[in-house]
Automatic annotation (TrEMBL):
PANTHER family, sorted: HTH-TYPE TRANSCRIPTIONAL REGULATOR TRMBL2
UniProt-listed PROSITE patterns: HTH_LUXR_2
The protein, known as: Transcriptional regulator TrmB
Lineage, uppermost ranks: Bacteria, Bacillati, Actinomycetota, Actinomycetes, Propionibacteriales
InterPro entries linked to this entry: Sig_transdc_resp-reg_C-effctor, TrmB-like, Tscrpt_reg_LuxR_C, Tscrpt_reg_TrmB_N, WH-like_DNA-bd_sf, WH_DNA-bd_sf
Superkingdom as given in the UniProt entry: Bacteria
Length: 305
């Protein structure tokens, strides 16, 4: 009987420690009999037989013809690869089964469930964040029943957050939120978290959250988010952004008053192409799609002062 037992390495693939111990004994003495394995391990024959049957079913050993029966271990590299493939297939099958169960659940519960209580809500927000694969969309506004969701900085997971101005009342809050995926808007209408465009968490009161699955309601909330995103102002300035020049301020003021590019060019004494070029640069630097939006954002950021 061996006095040293190495740490098991195949448990993650569904092989118990005793099966692995017997497999190691087979690797040390290929083509051995049950009696020889019993001698090497110190196990009784009934225990050897039970774990040999397990190794045979796992593909870690095979039996030679003839008597007495002898057992041959599978090559470790090939055996582990086979176990890994089986494990992956089981995971895929479980996910397919989960999707079927989810569909059945949604059909019975009208595509939404209700989560109650601060602890359950905090756990569900955490679970949703951990399961994100592609994208998380957040509408953030006070008051907070739980700590606001924190971005999981995992590769491939994109966060887009729209903060209500009241969410960033402190200077430290504003500094922490200045990233490319954050924007600010006055009076965000509701709180919302959407994960991978398939799961939505919609707080309806301090201790109640409605969880939405794929549905027309979730589609409507996604459209609302995109509309608010276009209206919101980026918190992270672009590299080209800075205080507007006096000429830029004049140009924006004239455009906001409704003057055409030709009229602005005459007023400023420059070519119309110059006005068009400068306006495109201003729109780009302010991440604005219209002249009105550019003027609004410039005013919000104090760039017209």
């Amino acid at each position: 009987m061996h006095s040293y037992r190495p740490a098991p390495v195949l448990e993650a693939l569904g092989v118990c420690s005793e099966d692995e111990q017997l497999y190691r004994a087979l690797l040390a003495r290929p083509e051995c009999t049950t009696i020889e394995l019993s001698h090497d391990t110190g196990w009784p024959a009934t225990r050897i037989g039970r774990h040999l049957r397990s190794l045979l079913s796992l593909g870690l050993a095979s039996r030679t013809p003839g008597r007495p029966a002898r057992y041959v271990p599978a090559v470790p590299e090939a055996a582990v690869e086979l176990l890994a493939l089986r494990k992956q297939a089981a995971i895929v099958e479980a996910r397919v089964g989960a999707s079927v169960l989810t569909a059945e659940f949604r059909a019975r519960h009208d595509a939404f469930t209700v989560v109650r209580g601060a602890e359950a809500i905090a756990q569900r927000f955490y679970q949703a964040q951990q399961c994100a694969q592609d994208e998380v969309l957040v509408l953030d506004r006070p008051p907070y029943a739980v700590v606001p969701i924190e971005p999981r900085r995992a590769q491939g997971v994109l966060y887009r957050t729209i903060y209500d101005m009241a969410s960033l009342s402190e200077p430290t809050d504003l500094v922490a939120a200045r990233s490319a995926g954050c924007r600010i808007l006055r009076d965000v209408p509701l709180k919302l978290v959407v994960v991978d465009r398939r799961t939505g968490l919609l707080p309806t009161s301090p201790d109640v959250v409605v969880e939405l699955g794929p549905s027309s309601l979730l589609d409507g909330l996604l459209r609302l988010f995109e509309l608010l995103w276009k209206q919101a102002s980026p918190l992270a300035p672009s590299a080209a952004e800075g205080p507007l020049s006096f000429e830029d301020q004049q140009l924006l003021s004239l455009a906001a008053a409704g003057l055409t590019d030709q009229a602005i060019a005459r007023r400023l004494g420059v070519a119309q192409r110059t006005v068009e070029r400068r306006m495109q640069r201003i729109l780009k630097s302010l991440d604005a799609s219209t002249r009105f939006q550019a003027g609004l954002r410039a005013g919000q950021r104090g760039l017209l002062v």
